[in-house]
Amino acid sequence: MMNQGEIGLKGRMDIQDLKVTFGRKGNLVEAVSGISLHVNPGEFVSIVGPSGCGKSTLLNAVAGFVKPSGGKVLLDGKEIKGPGADRGMVFQQYSLFPWMSVRKNVEFGLKMAGKERNARESAARTLLGLAGLLAFENHYPDQLSGGMRQRVGIVRALATSPQVLLMDEPFGALDAQTRVVMQEILTNMWQRFRLSVLFITHDIDESIFLSDRLYVMTARPGKIKAEIEIPLPRPRVPEMADSAEFLKLRHELHTLIREESLRAMGGELKEGLGGFDTEVGPKGVQALI
Amino acid sequence: MNTTTGLLPAKQTYEYGLDHVDALEPMSDPIPVQTKRAVNSGDSEVTTRPLAPARKMLSQWFMANIVKFLLGLLSITLFVGFWYLATKYRWDFYVRFTSIPAPGDVFTEALSLAHQEDFYKNMALSLRRIVLGFGIATVLGILFGLIIGRYRLVHSLLFPILEILRPIPAIAWVPIAIMLWPTNESSIVFITFLGSFFPILVNTIEGVSNQDKILISAARSLGAGEFALMREVILPGALPSIFTGLAIGMGVAWVSLIAAEMISGEYGIGYFTWEAYSLIQYNDIVIGMIVIGILGLACSGVIRLMGRILMPWHSTNNGRS
User: Fold this and answer.
1) Distance (Å, rounded) from C-alpha B121 to C-alpha A12?
2) Beta carbons of A238 and B14 less than 8 Å apart
3) Residue B268 distance to chain A (closest CA, Å)
């Protein structure tokens, strides 16, 4: 129903009935419980949900770090079997190699791909230039601010030209002002590189500002509660956060996630909310469960 | 003052577009103070730093270090002064300084030894044993440490036996080593090796298992295979811990070497020291001790220097956080 014309592009991701369980027999914890979703080529899709809902587990399964106990993840029709450079990963924690300069960090994926030193160097410099980091190419990560480190992390993930970028609350550790700037930078990079993005966050404003479409997850065990399209025009500007449309979306999402947060906390207020399995929300919201 | 309020257009801060994003970057993504300092000490910005503060910093550094140097000199002087007085007046209060050589005699003896070829041969042989024993321990300790730290199965297989052998001091191996190895020389090297192997091994294992798992995930998501992971991520990540092991290992290597030389040696500075006692050449005992101290210090210095060369990122960190 979306982007049908772009079906030929690469970077289509299908998650089919994905299940992830942790622990051993007798003490199994279901983290992700039968999730199906997709990302169209070039689409920016976010997953929002209360903390502990299994959204990071979901992303780790897509990245190939966690083995699903059921279902599968397809990238351009091919099933994912472990980590690989076709999916660029940006972590919440700083994950730059402290012993490598900024440029060497960016070059890492290309080196693993067997690229020549000169090619690596010029590719890394080009990307660092785009992110406004060229002046810091010879610095070590410890010499950079948090926002800069995370930008290097994004650039490093982009260097191998992945089909899809997986981002696990990448701006969660940054202060509010830096986060806003990072969101704009990310939008720019995304539009420039025309790649698919699967973005995990618990920040509702962030998910609306960045996404074409987003999924709301339930409290653990994580399921998809709702799928919401963000019809805001692009380019997105921070002023949009004051628009009626934005506020309406934010309100819907707050309601959805609040229910799940409460449920995760034990559901004492269940009665007061009048249940959570009912379909919520005006148009734009499809309750999937 | 009042006129400046409201002068900054909010629009400029939030205008969209890549150029603008870059332009507003420094405002919204402030470089913390520590990074500013890092930038200033970088190559390109060095010229912009005014000269006066630099000179002031230099003189401050000089003052701080001259005090340090003088205090160090004072403690050595006090030590030698005590030694001089104790031997001059042959102090005897349970601890007896009656047979201890005086600093002046030791110094004179050292001058004459400086012309004897045998003395240098002793030093050279001890150093050779250290280089061999410690070198093999470094290679094997790091290799086994990486594998044991990385693979749980190897850990379960090898760690128990290593844990049993570890508490046995290298010197306790002397009789077995003499039986085990064909030459005296190889058994001394073996003892030296044993002394330094375990600290290096244990610290390497610790460095590998304490590594931030997110870095391994990051490397794998960037396409690193197992071997590349080992070489590019696990080894450099463990380096700080490995160097701790090397520093400890070097100390234990000297302890083990000197003991082995005293017991079963031919030549070597430990042998020289013990021989001096047997031949009642008390001045030479002290000279042997001082030489051992100096050589040990020099070896530790080499380890520290290597650490600084191999881990430049580590030193940029120091005194910063």
Assistant:
1) 73
2) yes
3) 40
Distances (CA, A) of A79 to A12, A16, A65, B136, B284: 12, 10, 14, 46, 76
pTM, two decimals, is 0.78
Q: Quick check: helix, strand or coil at residue A162?
A: coil
Task: Tell me which chain A residues have a C-beta less than 8 angstroms from the C-beta of B34.
Answer: 143
* Measured CA distances, A200 to A106, A167, A169 (Å): 23, 6, 5
Task: Give the integer Cα–Cα distance in Å for B81 and B133.
Answer: 38
- Find the CB nearest B28 among A88, A156, A178: A178
Question: Which residues lie closer than 8 Å to A171 by C-beta, 6 or more apart?
Answer: A150, A178, A179, A182, A183, A201, A203, A206
Cis omega before residue A170 (within 30°)?
no
Residues of chain A in contact with residue B46, where contact means CB-CB under 8 angstroms, are none
ipTM above threshold 0.85 = no
**How many angstroms separate the CA atoms of B9 and B7, rounded?**
6
Q: Under an 8 A CB cutoff, do A93 and B214 touch? A: yes
> Cβ contact (<8 Å) for B223 and A109?
yes
Please choose, from the candidates B191, B171, B195, the residue with its C-alpha nearest in 3D space to the C-alpha of residue B181.
B191
Q: How far is CA B126 from the centre of its chain?
A: 19
Q: Are B254 and B299 in contact (CB under 8 A)?
A: yes
State whether residue B288 is helix, strand or coil.
helix
Cβ atoms of B134 and B253 closer than 8 Å: yes
In tens, the pLDDT along A37-69 reads 999 999 999 999 887 788 889 999 999 999 999
Q: What is the pLDDT of residues B38-55, one digit of tens each?
A: 443 334 333 444 556 777
Apex A122 CA angle, A117 and A123, nearest 5: 95
Asked if B313 and A142 come within 8 Å (Cβ–Cβ), the reply is yes
